[in-house]
Structures are given as structure tokens and as C-alpha cells.
């Protein structure tokens, strides 16, 4: 086609037509009556009013939305993890396994948001970075709750939340409570596995230390998977969670390296150097150790 004229041998393509979906026979509820609308149900007026850039820079909106979306996914993870913990405590593993699988899928969404944020260049970020002050993802209450619930306990991490009494109290409770892994070990003990007594009742605010005896119990689960399938499946779900958390941290590290290089983070950490240390952490260490022995 030249100058809007079709020439011989050229056929009109579908996108040259003006079409619309006919709704006459669809029974659409044009009048909602007393029912909630979609926007009201999701409280979109509040949700979409929460993006308030502090600068006039175009790219700050991207930065805000990526972090808000991440917090929403973490909100879902905490919802599922709390319920999964309750199921494990009651030896009700089927729904707990489903919830843990959903958390793994949610972690994939968290990882993918870094791809969106990676479109931010160092020049674009530096244009509004000063507006953040000392605010940082390091101060995310939900992220810290997830780490505590998974088992990465560090009492020092709570101090940064002292200005928020509710957050501080919530994190202190999570710090003192048994983690997901602690409850899983208690489950193994109830099933007859010889978990050391001082691992079943201990100061849960302290970091978990790997045990050869616990590793031996997990090896037994794997070697007898046909008889202990739910425990075998639970172990693999835990590995999924740990694996995805490591991927999330690795993507975060490379994003930070790409956008700010080796400058310190706004929260006061060393940035890349701090995130590199975090890559060494594992929530369920024996489940990784035994893979060499199988």
C-alpha cells in the first residue's frame, strides 16, 4: 500500500479493519445496584493514590511502584507462610505443602520485578536518590519478618525499627518464636526421627546452627521417600524456598551493582559488599549439605 491506496495483489490485513466486540448478548451488569464495584472491592482509590514521588523526576514513579509491588507480594508470602506454619504444627501437611508451593511461585514474581527496575540507569536514579534520605529496603518490616519466619534470626536487625513501636514489637515476637524450620524439626521428632533435644527447645532468637544429627535424619527421609513421601515433599518445598530466596538476593545484588556501583546504600550498609555477605546465608543448611551424600 502506498499513499493509502491498495495495489493489485495486496490483500487487506485484519488490522486494517475497524472491529468491536458485540456486547448485546453478554448480559453485562451495567447497573451495579448495591453491589461493590471492582475498584471499591480492591480499594483502588487508596492503592493508586499511594504513589507520591518526592521529586519531579519521571523515573521516581518506577522506583516507588516496584518497591510497593514487592511489598504486596511479601504480604501474600507472609499470609501463606503463617497458615503453612499452622498446618505443620498440626501435622496437616497437604494444605501446608500447597501454601509453600504458592510462596515459591510468588518468589518468582519478586525476582522478576528486579528486571523492571534494571531499566533505571545510574544517571536516572541519581537524579532523585537524595529524596530518599536514609530510607532503604533494609528497613522493610515484611522482609525482616520473612527472614525471621524462615529462620534467619539476627537480633541486631530489630534496632532500626525502634521508632515504630508496632513494627518493633511484631519483629521481637517473631524473633523469639520458633521459625518454619524449627517447626519442621519438631514435626520430624513427632514422626520418630531423633532430632537432638536441644534443637527442639532452645533460644529461638539465636541463629540456627547446622547439626550432623539433623542431617542424618533428613538423609533417612530421602532414602525412604516411598514410605515418607509427605516429608520428602516437604523437604523439597523447603529447598525451593531457599533456592528462590538466593536467586532474589543475587538479582538484587546485580541490580544494585548496575545502578549504583559500589556506593553505600541509603540505609547505611556497604551496598554490594553487604548483599554479597547475604548470599552466603541458607535457611535450611542440612538440606543442602546432604545433597553431596546422596
Question: Quick recap of the structure?
Answer:
The chain has 294 residues and is an all-alpha fold. The protein is 55% helix and 0% strand.
Would you give an account of this structure?
With 294 residues, this protein is mostly helical. It contains 13 helices and no strands. The chain has helices spanning 38-41, 44-47, 60-89, 93-117, 122-126, 141-150, 165-176, 180-190, 197-200, 212-223, 229-260, 272-278, 285-289. Helix 3 runs parallel beside helix 6, helix 4 (93-117) runs parallel beside helix 11 and helix 11 packs antiparallel against helix 12 (272-278). The longest helix has 32 residues, at 229-260. It is globular and about 65 Å long. The model has no long low-confidence stretch (mean pLDDT 92).
Key traits:
0% strand, 13 helices, 294 residues, mainly alpha
Amino acid at each position: 500500500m502506498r499513499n493509502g491506496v491498495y495495489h493489485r495483489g495486496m490483500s487487506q490485513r485484519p488490522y486494517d479493519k475497524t472491529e468491536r466486540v458485540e456486547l448485546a448478548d453478554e448480559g453485562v451488569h451495567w447497573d451495579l445496584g448495591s453491589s461493590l464495584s471492582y475498584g471499591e472491592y480492591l480499594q483502588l482509590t487508596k492503592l493508586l493514590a499511594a504513589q507520591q514521588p518526592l521529586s519531579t523526576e519521571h523515573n521516581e514513579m518506577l522506583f516507588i511502584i516496584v518497591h510497593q509491588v514487592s511489598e504486596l507480594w511479601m504480604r501474600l508470602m507472609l499470609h501463606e507462610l503463617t497458615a503453612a506454619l499452622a498446618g505443620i504444627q498440626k501435622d496437616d501437611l497437604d494444605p501446608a505443602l500447597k501454601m509453600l508451593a504458592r510462596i515459591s511461585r510468588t518468589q518468582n514474581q519478586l525476582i522478576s520485578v528486579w528486571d523492571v527496575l534494571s531499566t533505571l540507569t545510574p544517571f536516572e536514579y541519581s537524579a532523585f536518590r537524595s529524596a530518599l534520605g536514609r530510607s532503604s529496603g533494609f528497613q522493610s518490616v515484611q522482609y525482616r519478618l520473612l527472614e525471621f519466619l524462615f529462620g534467619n534470626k539476627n537480633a541486631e536487625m530489630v534496632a532500626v525499627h525502634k521508632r515504630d513501636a508496632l513494627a518493633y514489637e511484631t519483629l521481637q515476637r517473631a524473633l523469639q518464636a520458633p521459625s518454619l524450620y524449627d517447626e519442621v524439626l519438631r514435626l520430624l521428632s513427632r514422626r520418630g526421627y531423633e532430632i537432638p533435644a536441644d534443637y527442639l527447645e532452645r533460644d529461638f532468637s539465636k541463629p540456627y546452627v547446622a547439626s550432623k544429627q539433623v542431617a542424618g535424619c533428613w538423609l533417612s527421609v530421602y532414602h525412604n521417600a516411598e514410605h515418607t513421601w509427605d516429608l520428602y515433599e516437604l523437604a523439597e518445598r523447603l529447598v525451593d524456598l531457599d533456592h528462590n530466596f538466593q536467586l532474589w538476593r543475587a538479582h538484587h545484588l546485580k541490580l544494585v551493582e548496575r545502578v549504583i556501583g559500589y556506593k553505600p546504600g541509603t540505609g547505611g550498609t556497604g551496598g554490594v559488599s553487604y548483599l554479597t555477605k547475604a548470599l552466603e546465608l541458607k535457611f535450611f543448611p542440612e538440606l543442602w549439605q546432604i545433597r553431596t551424600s546422596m
